Amino acid sequence: MSTIAVIGAGTMGRGIAYTAAIQGFAVQLYDVYEDALERAKVEIERLGAKSFERGYLNEEERERLQTITYNGSLQHAVESADVVIEAVLEEMSLKLSVFKELDEYAPAHAILATNTSTLSPTEIGANTSRPDKVIAMHFFNPVYRMKLIEIIRGLDTSDETVNTIEAIGRELGKETVIVNEFPGFVTSRMNCLIGNEAMNMLMEGVASAEDIDKAIKLGLNHPMGPLELADLVGLDSRLRNMNALHRALGEKYRPCPILEKYVKAGRLGKKSGQGFYTYE
After folding, report:
1. Which residues cross the membrane (predicted)?
2. Which string of b and e fits 35-57 if b means at least 16 CB within 10 Å?
3. Is the peptide bond between 223 and the residue preceding it cis, with omega within 30 degrees of 0?
């Protein structure tokens, strides 16, 4: 398993491509939009240079980033892949459409993985001819820094597929946990509850965003506050996750009204310049 194709050149996709490349995998990064590929290349090279200057990468690892292929053809990106990792928007209809094409173009031996925090690998796999080779790999942002990959097996995912993805996770320098599919898996269920309650406290005037985050970081030893993290993930992405969990698991996952209001206003967090905080 030496070639990884990453589908989607957004924040998560380029983070996965960057991590795989520095660990020695041959990487194909695909996006339907040429400007997204151009932005990904600039960002990956910027991050590589910054990490090299700070001593996090050696010269060989930095040079490996130059081997990433930025591909505007899905067929060409996946036709020689051993593993395909999809990292598109968290919408089931879009993922099903992508996986239909992946199933057509990827080699028969290739494992098809979805980077999702809430959606069902069972449903995605059922829409392919290889449900035994479909699995979820939930990466965390920023991918190059976060140590965990949450591996979620679908109903028909084979043990061989799980074992292979575990091994690839180790080769990527990550720790892994194996989760049997259930809405929200492990981390998203907990994270969405904490973040939603922080938003409710902000709406109720319990404390400022800064003080809520400070309390969680210093009192509970979280590396980031829940409102900071929501801004980093993207408030639109968080709202999609909350709506999916609300449908599946009931009232305790009803999105906070302030989250819905911010998304309607275009305050999507760090990527838009404003969310619970303001960014340059």
Report:
1. none
2. ebbeebbeebeebbeebbeeeeb
3. no
Instruction: Pick out the chain residues at pLDDT < 50.
Output: none
Distance CA 207, CA 98 (A): 43
Nearest C-alpha neighbor of 170 from the set 185, 151, 142: 151
How far apart (Å, rounded) are the C-alpha atoms in residues 55 and 189?
Answer: 36
How distant is the alpha carbon of residue 207 from its chain centre? 30
- The CA–CA distances, whole Å, from 21 to 29, 38, 43, 172 equal 10, 17, 14, 9
Tokens describing residue 136: 């979820």
d(CA 183, CA 226): 21
Q: Which residue has the tokens 């990106």?
A: 77
- Residue type, position 111, single letter: I
pLDDT at site 233: 86
Q: For residues 79 and 81, what is the distance between their CA atoms, to the nearest angstrom?
A: 6
pLDDT in the model for residue 126? 96
CB atoms within 10 A of CB 71: 20
